[in-house]
Each structure stands twice: as structure tokens, then as C-alpha cells.
Automatic annotation (TrEMBL):
Name listed for the protein in its UniProt record: Lysophospholipase L1-like esterase
Superkingdom assignment: Bacteria
SUPFAM superfamilies assigned to the protein according to its UniProt record, in alphabetical order: SGNH hydrolase (SSF52266)
Transmembrane segment boundaries: 6-24
Pfam families: Lipase_GDSL_2
InterPro entries xrefs: Ester_Hydrolysis_Enzymes, SGNH_hydro, SGNH_hydro_sf
The SGNH hydrolase-type esterase domain, residue ranges: 66-258
Keyword Transmembrane: yes
Keywords for the protein's UniProt record, in alphabetical order: Membrane, Transmembrane, Transmembrane helix
Amino acid sequence: MKILKFLFITILLAVFAFAAWVYYPQYQLSKLKSKGTEERNMTTINTQSYLEYYKDSAKTQLNHLALGDSIIKGYGVSPDQNLVSHFSYSLENSIQKPVTFQNEGINGITSSTLHSLITEGSYNEAIKKADIVTINIGGNDILKMAASAGNRDMLSALKSFDELQSTFSNNLTGISKYITELNPDATILFLELYNPLPEKSPFYSLGTKLLPQWNLMIYQISSEIPSSLVVETTRVINNQNLNYLSPDGIHPNSSGYSAISEQMMYQFENNNSPV
């Protein structure tokens, strides 16, 4: 009887621990987003949106540097239809100043590789002259872990996920620190990771539960940088807007990249610049 009681308590604790592991990050993420909304609504006479700040600045042109994976590269679309082009052209039209852009997206790149490239100085000159740095990274970390998972049991898979999260967090922290030390005046735009799976997919629910943990780290890292925003990509790329995805079901199509760009512009217009 004592053994059965012990097993029952052990299983119950395991269930509670797993629930906390899954749902607490969602709660924290929701709080961070709500805090951002409250701060946007707390305007004073001296506040300016990012859009107003760049429009009124003495600079005659802006430089936009984009770093990351295939979402930055613009996989599946022509160069003039990718995210970086869409956003740069939209910003240029809004502030009535030229916006030059440098797209350094690399298909298949992981956060570890991007961290190495940046900290080894591969983009030093581009970072130094950038007014805006857009970063999208982490999706390939997850995809490569999933591909190598094979037939591992759930405990091993969750342990691998935790280890991968820690590596990703360290990489993104290192990337952010390097950029801000090299150019403390640059605004950094981080993109949320999104779940491209349709609701009927057997993996949709798992992705919905795990991705908030990933995005929470992005928000936490962004919160340590005064001039930084997290683009709420999940508002536009989700199971309600599958028409924004390309035939591969993962990458955005031209309309999807345009929609993310519009979200970036919306946040640029509705978030206060710290400067």
C-alpha cells in the first residue's frame, strides 16, 4: 500500500512539474506583452515613437542591417519581396529619408553559427554603421533537434530541449551584447518564432506549448536593451493565416513577408523610443 501511495505522489508531482514547465512560460510571456502594451499607453509630452524619432533625427539616411536565417534571407521569394526589403521600403516611405539595407540572412543557420560569425567580427563594419539591426534566429536550432530526436523517450527529448534552450539563450545574449557594445545607438529588432503548423497537425499542440518558452527568452533578452523591440510575428503568422505561408508550409510567401513588415511598422509607430 505504501508503495502505491509513493508511486501516486511521484506521478502527481511529475504531472505538476510538467504542467509548470509548459504553462508558466506562457504566463510570463503574456505578462511581458501586457507590460509592453501598458508602457505604450503611458505617453508624456516628451515621448516619441521610433518612427517619429527616426523621422525627426538629424540623419539624412538610415542604415538597416538584417542578420539571421532563411526568414531574413527571404527564402522562396525574389530579393525585392523579402522581409528586409518590405520593411526598409516601408520605413523609407514613412520617414521620407533613404533607408539602405544589408541582408545577411543565411539559409539553415543556427544561433551557434550566427553567434560565432558575429563575435568573430564578420559583420563589425556593418554593425557599427547600422541604425537598425533586425535579427531572426532559433528556428533551425529547433528543427535540427527535432530531426535528431529519432526514437528517444520523452524524458530524453525534454532534457535535450532544455539544453538547447540554454544554448540558444546564451547565444542570443552574446549576440545582443556584442552588437550593443559595438554600436550602443542601434535599435535592435528581434522577431518572435512562430508555429507554422495547421491546427489539425498532430504536432501543432506541442509547438504551441513549447514555442512560448523560446519566445520568452527573446523578450527577456530584449528587455535588457533600452532601444529594442520584439516583433510580434505570431500575430500575423499563425494557424488562422496559413495563406501567408509558402507551399513548403514553413516559410512565409511574399504576402507573409509583407504582413510581418506591416507588423514591424505598426510597432515602430506605436512604441516609444527610449532616446
